[in-house]
Each structure stands twice: as structure tokens, then as C-alpha cells.
């Protein structure tokens, strides 16, 4: 196979791995990604691509550059967790629901092998090497980065379920943390309800099986007794707004990760595949620790 045909085959391999890792068998992502990585490297070698073209070079430079940026990622996370206005962005329910052993598995196995290995080999190694044989350098970078962005559609949908704060932030560009100013905090948790507004910060997300809307019930949950008023099914307008918010999050994720893909390509040119791989691992793996730390700080603040 030659040129763009090889690129198309690689995209097919990646599409299959994406569905397997995000929908069908998430826990088996390391095995799926290892097989997909091997398939991509096999295609590249068949096309005569050399190891240097794939980024298997400059190991010392990559370790120094990637390691330094990984430390910068850790410092940035620590600063974000330390600020109340941004702490909720780190409260990823996927990480908070894991046991300690599962969290270590995610950080030390799922992220490096199940995510980073395949993505770096594919989007900073094989695809740029194949595309560069038929397109100019800028076009190669643009296509590789765009494909990296599209790769994150399914993860973005999963993120929307796990971290609602990011969805709200992407939807309105508003501060995702509650208003704790004296004018609002001093009035108590039910002040907004007294003013005719729903207080969502103290309402569990559950099905309401009571006839009367009382303390802790969900205004728009399904009422199993079928009465109107409290417990009504969300309106079409509310559903449309939720879908629009989700669409904004997905589009924002695709655009942002495409831009990150471009930056990672720059790191790959300076430090081989190792440089972006180390930053990538730090960004994802440190996120699990950040979620736990953010929850611990919030718990201490509330006690």
C-alpha cells in the first residue's frame, strides 16, 4: 500500500481501538492499544519508514525536556487545586470512585500503556511520517493534530458524565464554583429557594418517590406517583440546553486537544517521542492524584 492508502488503513485501526477503549472494553485498553500500536508500526515499516522518522531518537534530550515539563504540569495542578475557584475542575468522579489499587492501575498501567503509547506512536510518529511523504510539513502537522482532536470525541463524552463542572464551564464560561461571597453565604443554603430560585447545591440527583416536594427532592426528577408540579420530567427546552452544553464541551475538547497535538509535535521534533510522552503521562496520571487531593481539601474545608 502506498501514501494516503496507508494513512487510511492506520485511521481504520485507530477508529477500532478508540471504540474498544472507550465503549466496548475499557479495562482491556492496554492490550488493545498494544495490538493497535504493533499494527501501526507494522504498516509504517512496510512502507519503509525508518525509526528516526517515527521519533525513536534523541532519548537524552527527550528525557530532559519531557521531565522538566512534567514537573511544570505537577506545579500547575498543585496551584489549581490550591485555589477554591478552580478546585472543582479537578473533581473527576471517575478517579474518585476508584479504589486505591484501581487508581494505581490507571495511573501506572492504563494511562502509559492504554493511552499514551498508542496516541504518541500514532499521532506523533506513524501518521506524520506517512503523511510527510505526500504532503508539506505544515499540512502534515495540521492533519495529524486534527485527527488527534477527533480522537477525543468519545473521551469527551465520558468526561462530561464524570466532571459536570467542566461541562458548565464550557457551556457558559462561568465560574464553576458556588458563590461564597458574604452576601450569599450568610443567607444560608435555602436563601435562593426563598427568592423563588431552586437550590441545586443541596439537592441529591435521585428519583423522587414522594407526593410533596420537600427537603432534598429534585425539582425536575421523575415523580413515580405521576403528579404534576414537583417531580416533573425535564422540559424540551432543558433537554435542548443540556445537549447544547454537551456539544460545546465536545467541540471545545476537540479544538483544545488538536492544539495540544500541535504542541506535542513541536516537542517530538526537539526531543523525539519521549518528550511528548512524558508530558502526556504526567498530564493524565497526575490528574488521578489531583482529584483525590481536591476532594480531601474540600472535606477539610467543610469540617
From TrEMBL:
Entry's Gene Ontology BP terms: CAAX-box protein maturation
CAAX prenyl protease 2/Lysostaphin resistance protein A-like domain residues: 110-285
Basic and acidic residues bias locations: 187-201
Keyword Transmembrane helix: yes
Positions of region (Disordered): 173-239
Pfam families on file: Rce1-like
InterPro entries given in the database record: Rce1/LyrA-like_dom
Transmembrane segments: 63-84, 246-267, 273-291
Tagged with keyword Transmembrane helix: yes
Keywords noted in UniProt: Membrane, Transmembrane, Transmembrane helix
GO MF entry, a single one: endopeptidase activity
UniProt-recorded name of the protein: CAAX prenyl protease 2/Lysostaphin resistance protein A-like domain-containing protein
Organism: Acrocarpospora macrocephala
Amino acid at each position: 500500500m502506498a501514501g494516503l492508502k496507508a494513512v487510511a488503513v492506520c485511521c481504520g485501526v485507530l477508529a477500532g481501538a478508540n471504540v474498544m477503549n472507550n465503549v466496548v472494553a475499557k479495562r482491556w485498553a492496554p492490550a488493545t492499544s498494544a495490538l493497535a500500536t504493533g499494527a501501526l508500526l507494522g504498516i509504517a515499516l512496510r512502507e519503509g519508514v525508518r525509526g528516526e522518522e517515527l521519533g525513536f531518537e534523541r532519548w537524552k534530550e527527550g528525557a530532559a525536556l519531557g521531565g522538566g515539563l512534567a514537573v511544570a504540569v505537577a506545579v500547575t495542578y498543585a496551584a489549581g487545586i490550591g485555589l477554591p475557584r478552580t478546585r472543582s475542575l479537578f473533581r473527576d468522579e471517575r478517579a474518585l470512585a476508584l479504589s486505591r489499587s484501581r487508581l494505581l492501575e490507571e495511573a501506572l498501567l492504563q494511562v502509559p500503556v492504554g493511552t499514551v503509547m498508542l496516541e504518541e506512536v500514532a499521532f506523533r510518529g506513524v501518521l506524520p511520517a506517512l503523511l510527510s511523504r505526500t504532503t508539506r510539513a505544515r499540512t502534515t502537522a495540521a492533519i495529524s493534530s486534527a485527527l488527534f482532536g477527533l480522537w477525543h470525541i468519545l473521551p469527551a463524552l465520558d468526561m462530561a458524565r464524570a466532571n459536570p463542572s467542566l461541562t458548565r464551564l464550557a457551556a457558559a464560561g462561568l465560574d464553576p464554583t458556588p458563590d461564597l461571597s458574604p452576601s450569599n453565604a450568610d443567607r444560608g443554603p435555602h436563601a435562593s429557594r426563598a427568592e423563588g430560585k431552586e437550590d441545586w447545591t443541596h439537592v441529591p440527583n435521585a428519583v423522587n418517590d414522594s407526593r410533596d416536594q420537600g427537603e432534598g427532592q429534585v425539582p425536575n426528577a421523575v415523580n413515580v406517583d405521576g403528579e404534576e408540579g414537583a417531580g416533573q420530567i425535564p422540559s424540551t427546552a432543558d433537554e435542548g440546553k443540556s445537549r447544547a452544553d454537551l456539544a460545546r464541551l465536545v467541540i471545545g475538547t476537540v479544538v483544545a486537544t488538536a492544539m495540544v497535538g500541535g504542541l506535542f509535535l513541536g516537542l517530538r521534533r526537539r526531543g523525539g517521542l519521549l518528550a511528548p510522552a512524558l508530558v502526556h503521562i504526567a498530564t493524565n496520571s497526575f490528574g488521578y492524584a489531583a482529584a483525590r487531593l481536591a476532594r480531601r481539601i474540600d472535606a477539610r474545608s467543610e469540617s
